[in-house]
Design a protein that fits this description.
Layout (H helix, E strand, L loop, with lengths): L1 E2 L6 E2 L6 H7 L18 H4 L9 E5 L5 H9 L4 E5 L12 E2 L5 H4 L2 E7 L8 H9 L2 E12 L4 H6 L17 H10 L2 E6 L3 H17 L5 H20 L8 E8 L1
Parallel strand pairs: 3-4, 3-6, 4-5, 6-7
Antiparallel strand pairs: 1-2, 7-9, 8-9
Helix pairs in contact: 8-9
Length: 253
């Protein structure tokens, strides 16, 4: 991974070839139905701050449609739409599927969500500008994406959960994300990520460390301890700047 000297965002030194990328998404976790057993501890996050008055909701990169299934209960009167590169055969029911090329035909939308999407796409600014153009007056976007300034990158480096090469094409810093959104004609209001998310990301990072058999036992132990210590410091004095995740609410400029 390399870091931009201007904004601090991270990106791979070499981008994957299309055939390698297709293989990397085989069996990707978003295509299967999840289990939010800890959902009660981060309800606002899982509900993506969806306004009560949002009548038409689009989830771009909907995967199996878990968020839209939540909205079927929380916002039963809203029209719910989902889109992704491929619709999983066992997706949740209760929402209308849209081909990515037909988003404009289904517009306008009151609320558009992108849960860990922009770090995967080749042209995020163009995508965000396109989605912004489909917003109804007063509508907005909810975006969650990994944070390049996370304490996990500083503590664990290449073993951090959100390196996730070759699927992640860019991991944005807050400054890099602000520049991206401004270029797409959006204003940004950042929100705090749940503490539980930091714990879950740390668990995945430690799994990466322990699973790397090229490390000596002493190196695995040291990196694991260093990562746990970084988590404890973060939880004791939580700072949005070092959270593993950036969450932002956007409106058209």
């Amino acid at each position: 991974m390399m870091r931009c000297l201007e904004c601090g965002s991270l990106f791979p030194q070499k981008f994957p070839a299309p055939d390698a990328l297709a293989a990397a998404y085989g069996g990707y976790y978003t295509a299967s139905k999840g289990r939010s057993r800890l959902g009660g501890f981060r309800r606002l996050y899982l509900d993506r701050a969806t306004p009560a008055g949002a009548g038409r909701i689009l989830d771009y990169g909907s995967g199996a449609g878990e968020y839209l299934a939540r909205m079927a209960t929380a916002r039963p009167d809203a029209q719910r739409f989902g889109t992704d590169l491929v619709r999983p055969p066992d997706a949740y029911p209760g929402y209308a599927w849209i081909d990515p090329d037909w988003i404009e035909a289904a517009a306008p939308f009151d609320w558009i969500t992108l849960g860990h999407v922009i770090e995967h796409v080749t042209a995020p600014r163009e995508l965000l500008a396109r989605l912004a153009a489909t917003l109804a007056p007063g509508g907005g976007l909810w975006i969650a994406t990994p944070n390049a300034d996370s304490f996990l990158f500083r503590a664990a480096g290449a073993w951090a959960r959100d390196v996730d090469f070759p699927r992640h094409r860019e991991v944005f810093s807050r400054r890099g994300l602000e520049r991206l959104l401004a270029g797409a004609g959006l204003t940004a209001t950042f929100a705090a990520a749940p503490r539980l998310n930091a714990i879950l990301n740390t668990r995945s990072t430690i799994r990466n460390i322990l699973g790397d058999r090229e490390l000596t036992g002493a190196a695995r132990a040291w990196k694991t301890w260093r990562t746990l210590l970084a988590l404890m410091i973060h939880l004791a004095r939580p700072h949005a700047a070092t959270s593993p995740e950036l969450i932002v609410l956007c409106r058209r400029s």
